[in-house]
Structures are given as C-alpha cells and as structure tokens.
Amino acid sequence: MNKKVSVSLLVTTVIIAMTVTFSITMVMAMRIFDSTVSSVKEKETMYSNLAELDRYVRSKDYFTSNEDTLNAMLASGYVLGSGDKYAKYYTEQAYTELLNIQNGTLMGIGADVVKDATTGYAKVIKVYAGSPAEDLGMAQGCYITAIDGTDVKTISGTDAILSRLRGESGTTVSITWLNTAAQESTSEITRRSYTATTVDFQLLEGGYGYIRIRSFGSSTASELDYAIHSLTSGGATSFVFDLRDNTGGSLDAAISCIQLIC
User: What is the Cα–Cα distance from 163 to 3, expressed in whole angstroms?
Assistant: First the structure.
C-alpha cells in the first residue's frame, strides 16, 4: 500500500513539475515574442522614416550626392543617436588612421592640433621629434590657419583637421600657419612616417614624477615603463598621472598600463 502511495506521489510530483516548467517556458516565450515584435515594429518605423526622407531629399536635390559619404554619415548619425558618448563610427580610412595611431606610426606632418574655440584655427599642442613639422620649425602654440587653401575656420572639428593633415608617405600638403610670434607663412610639407609617442613625463620639484598619458596605444605600456624607471632613477618618490583629454584607444593597451602601474 505504501509503495502504491509513493508511486502515485512521484507521478503527481512529476506532473506538477512538468506543468510549472511548461508555464514558465510559455511566459518567457511570450515575453521574448512581444519584445521581438516591438523591436521589429520600431525598426520598421525607423526604416520607413528614413526611406521617406531619402525619397524627399532626392526628389528636391539639385546636387549629386556622394553615396559613400551619405552612407558613412548615416552610420555615424545612428551611433551618435544611440546616446553612448563613448561610441564612435569609423570609416575604413578613419579606422586605418586609428590603427596607425595606436601602433605609434603615422603618416602626416607630425603635429597634434585641436580646434581652438576662440580663433577657430588649429592650435598646435604637440610636435613630434623627427617629424616634418619639427623640421619646419613648428612648435607648441603655433596656429594652422589654412590647409591646401581651405580656411581652417570652415573645417568642422579636430578630427576633420587632422584627417586633412595626414596622408600617404611622399604626398604633400600646403599649410598656412602662424608661429609663436604671430608671423604668418605658407609651406609645402611632404608627409612621411614618424613615431608618435603617447606618454610625456618630467621630474618636478619635491621629487614628484609627472606622467601624462595622452592616448592608449600598442606602445603605451613600454613608454610608461620607461617613464617610471627614468623618473625613479632621477629621484622621483611619488607620481602624478595625468589622463586629462585622453583620446582613447586600445582597451588591451589600457589594461596593460593599469597592470604595470599596479
């Protein structure tokens, strides 16, 4: 009798477990379905709006659109609209430039610039050793006012300015620039490779070692190691790490630097 009760209880338990499992599975499936349908509807609305805008612009456009530029801007706008301030879309050319930056070897004039909010020109913030810019006599604090005859004020953003300054080795670019004494000159510069360091350092009074990491690249960890050893040998007893305005870069390189510091 007890054996029959045990078997009946086991069967009942199995049936209940199967029912609960089925119910949970159905609930989860319905939620996934609802989410998928909602996502599909949202995408359908997005594509419909985009198609309508495309039809309207093309019907009213008096100029021929560059399809590659148009698609790149659409992708860039999509990433920008995601709300992730750290996300950025790169074209094939821009991504190649990014890899060259991270590898520490660039093709360009050898100067880092930023779009100056006051003048609208490109302010030189660093000139790399052994670069065409250094050969020309450019230094930190100079201003580039025109690139290949185009007023820098009309070029939107630092990235666009840097892209115009970079190019294949052996190609030339014409720049009009002001030196630190505000004297203007126009020069033809031949682009070539140069080593772009990512770490600056100096020993300050009181035994403080100042280290600035401007960006993270494949050479950053070794540069940081060299900076720490150099400052320590020079008498540094403490360090200040400056990461202000860091331009980002490789996550692996950043992790390597953190491990090195720790």
Answer: 83
Q: Please determine, for residue 31, whether its predicted confidence score (pLDDT) is greater than 50.
A: yes
- Could you write out the three-class secondary structure of 103-141? HCEEEECCEEEEECCCCCCEEEEEECCCCHHHHHCCCCC
Query: Residue 29 and residue 37: Cα distance in Å, rounded?
Result: 12
Tell me: the pLDDT tens digits for 58-86? 887 777 777 887 888 888 888 888 888 77
List beta partners, residue 194.
106
Residue carrying structure tokens 């185009």: 150
Q: How far apart, in Å, are the Cα atoms of 128 and each of 5, 135, 196, 239?
A: 87, 10, 6, 24
C-alpha dist (Å) from residue 220 to 16, 17, 63, 66, 247: 61, 57, 46, 38, 13
* Residues 20/12, Cβ–Cβ less than 8 Å: no
DSSP 174-213: EEEEE-TT--EEEEEEE-EEEE---EEEEEETTTEEEEEE
Distance CA 254, CA 215 (A): 9
User: Rounded distance, CA 254 to CA 250, Å?
Assistant: 6
Residue-wise pLDDT for 200-233, tens only, equals 899 998 899 999 988 777 788 888 999 999 999 9
260/230 Cα distance (integer angstroms): 15
The answer to whether the CB of 173 falls within 8 A of the CB of 187 is: no
* Spatial CA neighbour of 144 closest among 114, 101, 103: 114
Which CA distances in Å does 122 have to 50, 152, 156, 188? 35, 7, 11, 17
